[in-house]
Amino acid sequence: MEFTPKWIAWEITRRCNLNCVHCRSSSQLEIEGHPDFSLAEAKRILDDIHAYANPVMVLSGGEPLLRPDVFDIAAYGTGLGLRMCLATNGALVTESVCRAIKEAGIKMVSLSLDGATAEVHDNFRNQPGAFAGVMEAIRLFNEHRIEFLVNSSFTRRNKAEVPKIYRLVKSLGATAWYLFMIVPTGRGEDIMDELIPAEEYEDILNWHYDMEREEHDLLVRPTCAPQYYRIVLQRAKAEGERFKRRSLKFSTGGSKGCLAGQLICLIDVDGNVLPCSYFPLSAGNLRTQSFREIWEHSRLLLDMRDFAGYKDHCGRCEYLQVCGGCRARAYAMTGDYLAGEPFCAYRPGQ
Length: 350
What we know:
Helix content: 25-40%
Structural class: alpha/beta
Strand content: 5-15%
């Protein structure tokens, strides 16, 4: 496998206007100790990355629309030839924001929707009116012909919403739907009791397989669920048929399970390069090292690419190369990022 950075999420601010139950970022409008970096620093980082690779760059947060220069950052990346995207909760989307998205050359916008009704979504987001904000943002995106995708995160409190949200997203004109199986990071560490058990997790992924096999319009993919790629092979073998999975726009293509530190990473607001958005350990810092140096020489990233070093049931699994287990979830639950995926129900040889 060639380890080339294809997709980078970039936390351009830690400030946010919501207080979501699962988020790794901060639910404050002013952040002590983690200030926004300057526009000059943003341009320097984009130049550094562009000199080495040509990844999709997702401007994230926090809520990136809280930065007044977010579109200056996006336009600079577009000018370099990078594919710039935006991840927002939708609450701050207006007509003028839509015009700025198009002028800055942003190619895709992602929104989060965690319930098919205001009651469920607003409860998950700890914010009355959050659902209405997402619906208004989607209306504006459709009106301005801005492509958008929807991310949905699931815990015990909203697991029954999975098929309902899928049907809603399909009706709203989204380009893609990503089903996220939550990783306990940030405030997510406080919701261990809300995590979906491994057996129910497996049921949801089997539902997704059946849905994806019949879905021909909406692009779909489970995320932070690497064992789905094991299920795809198991089901195809058992049922004697295989369906051609479509590549997603502005992603890694979804050919393998956990891609953290292999094809993707996160840059946090302090300049740390993390293997993914849910992995709290830093591989290096862009204020003292080049992106290339970190990507090619970080011990943390090299460990994650050395599948022979994986432990427990992941290390013994015949599906290791296509799944790999969620490294962030392994670290969150065991303290060892090479340990077996704790929410996988499959055990090799049984």
